[in-house]
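User: Here's a protein and a ligand (2-acetamido-2-deoxy-beta-D-glucopyranose). What would the complex look like?
Assistant: Let me lay out the input and then the predicted complex.
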Amino acid sequence: MATWSKPSLIAAVIFLLVSLLSSASVANGGRSGGRRLVRSYDEPCKEMRLYLHDILYDYSNSTSNSTSAAATKPTALSAAVSNPGFFFGRMVVFNDPVTEGRALPPSLEETVVRAQGLYLYDGKVVFDAWFAFTVVFNSTAHQGTLNLMGADPNTEMRDISVVGGTGDFFMSRGVATLRTDAFEGFTYFRLQMDIKLYECYV
Ligand SMILES: *[C@@H]1O[C@H](CO)[C@@H](O)[C@H](O)[C@H]1NC(C)=O
Ligand SMILES: *[C@@H]1O[C@H](CO)[C@@H](O)[C@H](O)[C@H]1NC(C)=O
Ligand SMILES: *[C@@H]1O[C@H](CO)[C@@H](O)[C@H](O)[C@H]1NC(C)=O
């Protein structure tokens, strides 16, 4: 059996690595239409501040104004823990307008950026929640989606993950810092979302 000399083995390994690296970059370039991956965990490659407006249907006659609805009845556990409970197990489904400024858009239906998804309450004695939603961009500035999810504890600032994206946000990942910017009982809240992407195709 032929044995490899040390220099020829090293040369073979280097050749293999170089050919693997070059085929990987060709594949990425092809799939993303010539864009390239920018990844730095020290500096975000993209930053956005957006406001999410959630108007919960509260059984009055404002159905046209509502953008979210409870999808569950109060659980026996939430009622037993305290009255009216902290809604442990309650799930809310939403299709909310998202804006760059704090003001509500003039037409709730025709907003070009929307957040679609759900939050559920998972605290027995505090208003802790869990979020999972997609920010859908259909504007002249951006076409595509970002998917966000994570625990939403009852604190002033909380971070959730940006786990992926499509379109202009192809394969994006990062962190969104949430802060409740306004709160009107149970019927309305405005969430400030500071989205920082650390992986982008540009
Ligand atoms: C229903 O809407 C009308 C018009 O906005 C308002 O005047 C009325 O008070 C509302 N009724 C209830 C029960 O909320
Ligand atoms: C819709 O809801 C928002 C938030 O509660 C409120 O500011 C606004 O006046 C409402 N609009 C109508 C037409 O009821
Ligand atoms: C995006 O906007 C265009 C133009 O306003 C509209 O025709 C299209 O239906 C929208 N798409 C979605 C998914 O909302």
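Summary: The CA atoms of residues 119 and 131 lie 4 Å apart.
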